[in-house]
Amino acid sequence: MEDFTLILIGLWTFIMAGLVFIGGYFMFRKFLKSIPKADGMSELDWQKFYIDEALPLWNDDAKAMLNELVSPVPELFRDVAKEKIAGRISKIALDEQVETIELEQIIKGYIVATPKQDHKFLKKKLTELEIDYTEHEPLFNISTGYKEESSIFEQSEQVKRNT
After folding, report:
1. Residue 160: pLDDT above 90?
2. Domain shared by 12 and 53, yes or no
3. CA nearest neighbour of 158 among 38, 144, 147
4. Is residue 83 located within the same domain as residue 137?
5. pLDDT at position 87, please?
6. Whole-angstrom Cα distance, residue 60 to residue 100?
């Protein structure tokens, strides 16, 4: 019985340490994104700025499409993913000076904001929604992985060049 208790305590300790390290990793990534850059604003500040600036451009259909596109993301991370994608879409819409955000800007922002590792799921979701993304194939090269994230400005410049 004592051996079983020690094994259980050891297993519990290992599990708890793993969960603490995983949580710490995500908190550290969020911290790095909130550090101000040379212009005095962080990546998260710029993301919020572009969302606030483009808020009048978002109609109900665009919001519904964004919600549909982020539906495969686990609920725990959905709000963060939705904010990141909405920030990219808003930046693209403001750069293109559109009157309302349409499917074109949503698809561009969705592709650019999605990490390379998730492109398979992105394409599956777009196919499921019967959205043709073939004309946006060059944008898949702009996306970065989880480790080498580029800024909202770098991606916007690349979107302009590829469209």
Report:
1. no
2. no
3. 144
4. yes
5. 92
6. 11
Task: Quote the pLDDT of residue 66.
Answer: 93
**Do both 86 and 125 map to the same domain?**
yes
CA distance 136 to 73: 22
Q: Is the pLDDT of residue 37 over 90?
A: no
User: What's this model's pTM, rounded to 2 decimal places?
Assistant: 0.75
Pair (26, 78) in one structural domain: no
Domain count, the chain: 2
Quick one: DSSP state of residue 77? H
Q: Report the SS3 class of residue 70.
A: coil
- Do 26 and 66 fall into the same domain? no
Instruction: Tell me which residue range forms the domain holding 110.
Output: 38-162
Per-residue pLDDT reduced to its tens digit, 89-145: 999 999 999 999 999 999 999 988 888 888 888 889 889 989 888 888 888 887 665
| Other residues' Cβ atoms within 10 Å of the Cβ of residue 13 | 10
Q: Which residues contact 143 (CB under 8 A, 6 or more apart)?
A: 111, 112, 113, 114, 115, 116, 119
Residue with tokens 């074109």: 104
Res. 32 pLDDT band, cuts 50 70 90: confident
